[in-house]
Write a structure and sequence with these properties.
With about 375 residues, the protein is an alpha+beta fold. It contains 12 helices and 12 strands. A hairpin with a 2-residue loop joins strand 6 and strand 7.
Length: about 375
Amino acid sequence: MGDSENSKSNGLSYRDAGVDIDAGNALIDDIKPMVKATSRPGADSELGGFGGLFDLKAAGFQDPILVAANDGVGTKLALAVESGRHETIGIDLVAMCVNDLIVQGAEPLFFLDYYACGKLDRTVAAHVVSGIAEGCKMAGAALIGGETAEMPGLYREGDYDLAGFCVGAVERGQTLPRQDVKAGDVLIGLPSSGIHSNGFSLVRKVLALSGAALTEPAAFAPEQSLGEILMEPTRIYVKPILAALRNTNGLKALAHITGGGFTENIPRVLPEDLSVNIDLGQIPHAPVFKWLSQTGGIAELEMLRTFNCGIGMVIIVSPDDKDAVMAALQAEGEAPVEMGLLQERKTEDAQVLYHNHLSGYGS
C-alpha cells in the first residue's frame, strides 16, 4: 500500500468528531496568567504537568491533617448560561468547596477544577476560569490544575458543567467541631451575599412564575437587574474565620449554610443531646428572599430548610468568648449577629427550633 493511500484526503480527524485539541491548548495559554496569580507558599501554580504538586512544609505546617472537599454550583449554571454571566460562577465554585473546609478548621491550600462542555467556547471558558482564579485568591488557595473536557453529543450547545476539588490542612488537634460544645453556647451568624449557590431549581421555578426577565430591574432593588442579584456570587468566609481562629480560642464549631438551610446544616455540628433555638428576628433583612417567598408562595419553614435566608455561615462560641470572637470578625470587615442559643434537647424536640419570624416577610 503506497503513501498516497495512507494519507487519504477524506480521513477522519478528532476535530471532525467535534473535539478541537488546538482550541483546548489555546485555552491553557489564555488562563496561565490567571493561574499564576493564585500562587502561594507551597505551590508554584504552573500548568502543564500530569498533576499538581504542593509542599506542606513550605506552607508552614508541622503535623497537618489534610481535609478535602468537592462540590459544584447546581442549577445556578442554567442561569449563568441564560443570562450570559459567566465571570462569577467560578467564585461560587471555589466558595462551595473552601467554605466547607474552613468549618473544619482547615486552611484551603490548593484547588482543581473540572470544566465539561459539548463544544469549547474559549471566551466563556476563560471567563469561568477567571472567576475560579479570583475565588482562589479570595480564599488564599493555589489553583494548581484542572481538566477541560469537550464531549460533543453529551451537552447541548452553550451548556457546560463545573466541579471543584479543594484540599486544605489543619494542625493535628485543632480540627472543628470541638468536643466542648454545650448548652448555653451562643450562635453567631455571618451575613450572606444573597442566595449563594443552593436552591436554584426552586429559584428558577419562582422566576418562571414571576414572568420577570433576568435583564429587567428587580422589583425589590430597581438599581440592579434581577439577573445581577440572582447571580451574586457566594461569599467566601475563609480569611475572616482564619483570623478569628488565630486571634481567639473561641470558635467551637461552624456550619456552612448551604442546601438544607439552617434546618439541615446546623445539626451536622451538634451533639445529639443539644438543640439550637434561633431568633429569626435577628437575621438581617434580605429582600431577595422576601421576593422568593412572596412570589412563589413559599412557607417560612420551607425557606429555612432550602435557603440561607441571609446568613451564610454560623459559628458556635461560649458566652465568655462571644465578644472577642465578634470583635475579631468585625476587624476583618464582617458584620456578625448574635442569633440564638444552644440548649438541652428534649426528647420530642427537633435539633433546630425557631422563634419570631424573618424580618419583612409579612409586608
